[in-house]
Fold this sequence. Notes:
Layout: H1 16-39, H2 47-61, H3 66-83, H4 89-108, H5 113-137, H6 150-158, H7 169-188, H8 193-208, H9 216-227, H10 232-246, H11 250-257, H12 259-272, H13 278-302, H14 321-332, E1 374-380, H15 383-389, E2 393-396, H16 397-404, E3 412-416, E4 419-423, H17 437-442, E5 448-449
Antiparallel strand pairs: 1-2, 1-3, 2-5, 3-4
Helix pairs in contact: 1-2, 1-9, 1-10, 2-3, 2-12, 3-4, 4-5, 5-7, 5-14, 6-7, 7-8, 8-9, 8-13, 9-13, 10-13, 12-13
Amino acid sequence: MTVPATEPTATGTGTASDRMLLAFVRLWALALLLHVCMADRHRLDTVWGIAVAALAFAVLIRPNDLRLFGVLLVAQLADMVAEMPYSPNHWMLDGFVGLTILACFALRREVTFDALRRAVPGIRIVLLIAYSAAALAKYNTTFLDPVTSCASAIASRASFGVTRDLPLDPAWMLITITAESLIPILLLIPATRRHGVRVGMVFHCLITLSPAIGVQDFSATLIALFFLFLSAPDAEHLLDRLQRLTGKSAVVRDVRRFPHLAALLGLAVIGFAGYASVAAASAATNVISKVVLAAIVIAAVWSWRQAAPPARLAGITWIHVPMIVLTLFWAMNPYLGLRTTASFTMFSSLRTEGTEANHLFLPSVHLTDWQEDLVYIESSNDREIERAARSDVAVPLLALRSRAMDDADLVVTGVLHGERVTFGPEPDQRPLDPLTWWERKYTHFHAIPVGDHPFCTD
């Protein structure tokens, strides 16, 4: 692979298109950095997590070095695979985007901005599939019931309980499902595309404002991807506004003067300060990340009225097809009877387990019996499972088998297919057979309620 002698510099020279890609590289590095540090509670302790954080800071300093960016994408994919099956929704989305970019680098056999530009059409489709899947998943009877809707639960948490007793539950549900349904439609229509970018940025920035909701890594991912739906002139308007806005800050000027020192301090605070105080490290990350995201969104809104052509979504080539198909398949996992977590069903309370799915119109066609073998939990020697049992839940048998591989003494009593069974290691108990390596790496199921308790799952 080769790298051309001339690339756009970090100060913004070069064509508008190159400047736009340079900004995306930085935004993407920020999104990956926030995830690994927040996921590890600011106590990085894995090789891949440390690698992603260190490489992300390096890319923020040298965004024009796409070889460094490519290594960052590889490190993110390695971390994602190492985490599976527990990798969350947006980490999987980040992985599919990274694969799309790396595939275009490999196809062109060069790590250049032209190769990165080739990846953009595929990235847009990947985002549209994932985001549309998240919106569609919310069209279910549980989410559309204001009493059980995740929207109400999240609003209550974000407001520290202030909204719990207010008659606003229908409003939260309606705002959420309307915004998430409207954003991909706005992004698809040329005349509304640039406005859809800003609506999406504002919506996901607002979600991050409460210190009680730690989803700024997810919002950073979406803001970076929404940015790619702007045309180069529109993106340049936004970046000009952002430069003028941040240029007034003495802190920003100091960071630009001493980027390596700022990166080292940032890595220490965001990545490792949790060993001293998780609360302090979380607070610092909250403030820094939310100020950065808010500045980007303010610049986006501020440049809204400046005339700019819409971005063209054309340019899909055969190299994008495998990533698009993989993303679509992943989004279909719950409906195909496969895994029910991290399949772009973010906080939707979607239920596809058993024989009574709760989606209004999407059918569930189970290719396996993984979601049909439900154990209605009565008791367990596992504290977490015992606590869940008091809320009347059912758990797919495969999830209990996976849990038993980490706890050889696990005992669970419940009802499976109408028969009361005690699972455990003793001779008079039914054994929880271990999963194959690929089943354990791939499958991951959440518990589902069987009573009248609120149901809010990621």
